[in-house]
């Protein structure tokens, strides 16, 4: 074993991931030291409420209520940021870099929105910022994209990258459970963000897609270019009808290189029931990468939770320790590509994106209604793959109708939906879900 002194960590946040990280560092201390070549020791940590009862052991760690005391503690070599959100996390991380400390973070919001600034601050000082835990919890997807697939031209990637959404959709599908009840369970289990609307409105997945797209295509982090839709509009009926058509509904992040630019989109998606991503359930995440040399690569594992996420945080710590003695100019670049080769490629507006669609309408049970709807679709050159009229609503004379279309550009579909919605025989807002075969 090395005789080098231990690497000293300052930890910001003693919540789900902070607690998990302390647990893994203590439980596997000898193994981790054997792999890193030095012991890793947490010397100080911060939380908002120091009086709170914690389920893990903090003996021997100096605890502060002010996170800046951790950042400015002269003993630390690496700052681990597990607070979340933009502020004060951004200020604390930038101060740690200014103090010459390496940083490990699980904060996807911070990296997606301020990563360009943070990586530049780190690079100019020869420091590392590691963020494996920021995408897909315990799955080592950053390392695979950045290192293991470095020889590939990546054509597209699609992923279930929010554990809370997948947990909710899986429970709706398997047990027909209520949306809010399942969300509360996800919160109790520590999967959800402190503001769970980040999960269910797709923002968290968009943060992660921003990071993955940058690693895949060598583009700067551009969160504002991602089209974002969450799962609030998915009803138990949609889940049932999708099953009947041989599909499952998953909340996906998709990034794809097209001739005209790059698609960046997050939305509920119907995928064939036999597709690998259709069978990833509960808090599990999966990322499918289509790479020109490797072919399709699918990585799956727990996408949230204390120990899986801690696994990624600790792996980053080991990487930082191993890299301390290397030449800082020749380390793995933060975003896979050398900074001077990053390109500001065009990103496509969602209107330019082409997919197939599932449409659910509630129509008056009258002659000619379906003919009107199919005529509008035909006018828009939208071809129908399947159409299904379902059981009549018990209390009214309205009937739900489900239509599957072939692929068409979103702007043509938007125009058709506007015309269908305006028909007097359509009795409720039409629901649309994009369909991808992921072939
Ligand atoms: P928690 O809410 O469980 O923990 C946050 C911790 O930070 C708490 O200890 C809290 O103190 C402290 N804290 C919160 N706000 C402040 C503040 N303004 N100043 C100082 N300290 C503060 O969050 P998680 O552990 O779930 O998440 C941490 C990070 O990891 C986030 O970026 C999250 O997105 C990311 N992440 C989470 C995963 C998960 O499964 N939970 C998975 C992957 C990434 P106190 O305890 O006193 O309230
Ligand atoms: N809230 C996030 C999720 C945590 O549910 O996926 C993991 O990033």
What does this structure look like?
By secondary structure, the protein is α/β, with parallel strands linked by helices. The chain is 35% helix and 24% strand. The chain has helices at 16-27, 29-36, 67-71, 89-98, 108-123, 141-148, 163-175, 179-188, 197-200, 203-217, 236-244, 306-323, 369-379, 410-422; strands at 7-12, 40-46, 62-64, 78-81, 102-105, 129-130, 154-160, 227-228, 247-258, 261-272, 284-291, 295-302, 354-364, 384-389, 398-405, 408-409, 431-435. The strands form two sheets. Strands 7, 8, 9, 10, 11, 12, 13, 14, 15, 16 and 17 form an eleven-stranded mixed beta sheet that branches. It has a six-stranded parallel beta sheet with strand order 3-2-1-4-5-6, sandwiched between helices. The model has no long low-confidence stretch (mean pLDDT 96). It binds NADPH dihydro-nicotinamide-adenine-dinucleotide phosphate and L-homoserine. NADPH dihydro-nicotinamide-adenine-dinucleotide phosphate (NDP) is lined by residues 13-18, 46-49, 52, 67, 82-84, 88, 106-108, 133, 137, 190-191, 193-194, 304-305, 309.
């Amino acid at each position: 074993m090395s005789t080098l002194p231990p690497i000293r960590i300052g930890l910001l946040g003693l919540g789900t991931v902070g607690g998990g990280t302390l647990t893994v560092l203590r439980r596997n201390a000898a193994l981790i030291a054997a792999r890193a070549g030095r012991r890793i020791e947490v010397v100080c940590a911060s939380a908002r409420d120091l009086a709170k009862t914690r389920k893990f052991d903090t003996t021997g760690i100096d605890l502060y209520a002010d996170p800046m005391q951790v950042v400015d503690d002269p003993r630390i070599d690496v700052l681990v940021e597990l607070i979340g959100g933009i502020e004060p996390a951004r200020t604390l991380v930038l101060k740690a870099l200014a103090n010459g400390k390496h940083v490990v973070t699980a904060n996807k919001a911070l990296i997606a929105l301020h990563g360009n600034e943070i990586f530049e601050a780190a690079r100019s000082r020869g420091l590392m910022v590691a963020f494996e835990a920021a995408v897909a919890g315990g799955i080592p997807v950053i390392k695979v994209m950045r290192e293991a697939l470095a020889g590939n031209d990546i054509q597209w990637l699609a992923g279930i990258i929010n554990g809370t959404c997948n947990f909710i959709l899986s429970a709706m599908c398997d047990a027909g459970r209520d949306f809010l009840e399942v969300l509360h369970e996800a919160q109790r289990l520590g999967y959800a963000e402190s503001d769970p609307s980040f999960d269910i409105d797709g923002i968290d997945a968009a943060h992660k897609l921003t990071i993955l797209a940058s690693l895949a295509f060598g583009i700067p982090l551009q969160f504002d270019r991602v089209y974002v839709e969450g799962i609030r509009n998915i009803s138990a009926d949609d889940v049932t009808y999708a099953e009947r058509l041989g599909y499952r509904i998953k909340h996906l992040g998709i990034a794809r290189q097209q001739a005209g630019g790059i698609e960046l989109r997050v939305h509920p998606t119907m995928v064939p029931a036999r597709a690998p991503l259709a069978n990833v359930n509960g808090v599990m995440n999966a990322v499918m990468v289509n790479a020109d040399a490797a072919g399709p690569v699918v990585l799956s594992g727990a996408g949230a939770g204390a120990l899986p996420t801690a696994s990624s945080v600790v792996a980053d710590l080991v990487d930082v320790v191993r890299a301390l003695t290397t030449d800082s100019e020749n380390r793995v670049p933060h975003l896979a590509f050398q900074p001077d080769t990053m390109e500001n490629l065009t990103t496509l507006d969602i209107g330019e994106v082409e997919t197939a669609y599932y449409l659910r309408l509630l129509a008056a049970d009258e002659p000619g209604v379906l003919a009107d709807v199919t005529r509008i679709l035909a006018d828009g050159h939208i071809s129908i793959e399947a159409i299904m009229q379902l059981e009549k609503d018990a209390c009214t004379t309205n009937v739900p109708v489900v239509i599957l279309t072939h692929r068409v550009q979103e702007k043509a579909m938007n125009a058709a939906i506007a015309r269908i919605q305006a028909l007097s025989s359509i009795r409720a807002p039409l629901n649309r879900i994009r369909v991808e075969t992921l072939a």
